[in-house]
Each structure stands twice: as structure tokens, then as C-alpha cells.
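Changelog note: in this version the structure field was regenerated for every chain. One regenerated record is shown below for reference.
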Amino acid sequence: MDKLVTQNISKGFGGKSVIEDISVTLRAGELVCLLGVSGVGKTTLFNIISGIMKPDSGAVLLNGSDITGKAGEISYMQQKDLLMPYRTILDNVCLPLLIRGERKARAREEAGQYFEQFGLAGTQKLYPHELSGGMRQRAALLRTYLFSHEVALLDEPFSALDAITKASIHQWFLDVMQTIHLATLFITHDIDEAIVLSDRIYILNGSPGKITAEIAVASPKPRREEFLVSQEFMDYKRRILELLKS
């Protein structure tokens, strides 16, 4: 069974349609990208999937159950890490567990078990301003994972990073995803990022935004730096550029 399904989602504002008839699927352990230019409606779709916003028509299903308009069912990591500056990294990461009613000591213990796996060992007592951008994103991803081990939405999580840091965190992200098997739907307008990270890519295009193509990236994971200069990578990139222009 698919973990997450959107069925014919449409949404407009002020009489103008923003997205139309969007149907996507996400399977267990899969990483799927929504790729499109800015303003095509990607974040609107995420707000609907997460339950922050209701669609004008269509439905969102999680494990076969209708969760349309229900917030708190799916974890959602936005572009900014949103770490609280007055909390330590451990206490920032613990927040989803505390919200669920766990005692602070137990929440810290549970979250602390993942710090080494997420490359955060030794940062538990530090504060967000003491971490690099890449490390802050790791902490934000761990917090997202603790909110839900099933499905996560990532909205351009690496867009604020410089090119070198982004390349490094891509490799880390592929490695950690091999371990945690978190079904992930993520937004990007970075074609290279989409190809490197995704199992499948949905192309959003037009106004209103629609799914105009679906591409399966067959190269095995984890994909290393040499994949970026391979003919296979260039073929995917050329195809995507053609689809975005059409």
C-alpha cells in the first residue's frame, strides 16, 4: 500500500487557480521530489498535504485513511530550520516528543539515541547559533523524524546552504536515509539536487501548476560525487530541462 496519496488536489486564491488536479503517490522508504520553478504551487500543495490548508477539491490519504485538512498527521520541515535560539540542540530536537506528552527526561533520552546516527554527536548541549548551517539542518531533520517515523515533507531544506556545504549534506542525507527509511516528499527547484536525491521526480509546470511528467531515477543509491559527472546524470538533466521548457 502507498504511504501517502494525493487525489486530484486543486486550490485557488481570490478566484485564481494555483494548482489543479494534482495526484502524487509516496511509497514506504521512498524519496520523491516535486520539481518546478518558483511560484508554480509547490508550497501550496505541501500546506494542503500537511493539513495546514484545505483544498478546494481532492483528498489526502495516509496509509489509506483520509486526513484532508487534519494537521499533525505528517511531519513538515520548512525552508528555515526554525530552531529555538534559547533551547539547546537536544531540547530543540525533543520538541515533538514533549508535545506528545512525554516527560522531559524520557524525551531527552529517546532523542539522544539518534544524535550519532544523524552526525550530531557532541552537539546536545550547544545552542543553534553555535552550529553551522549544515549542522542546524541535520538537527531540524532529526526533529522532523521524531515527529513522524512514517512520512515527512521537506520544503527546500538545503536551499540556504552554499554549494560546497550542500554537496556534503546531500551525501550525508543519502546515507542516513538508507538507514531510517523515512518516506519523504521534498520540494526543490534545483534540478541537480532532484536527480541526486530522488527515487522519482514529479515535474510541476504551468499556471495553474499541474503534474506534467514523472521520472524514475534508476541509478542505485547512495549516489556518490562521480554520479554528478556521469552521462546518466546529464541525460536526466537534459530530459528535465526539456520538460520544464515545454
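Spot check on this record: Strands lie at 4-13, 16-26, 31-35, 57-62, 65-66, 75-77, 151-155, 183-188, 200-205, 210-216. The chain is about 35% helix and 25% strand.
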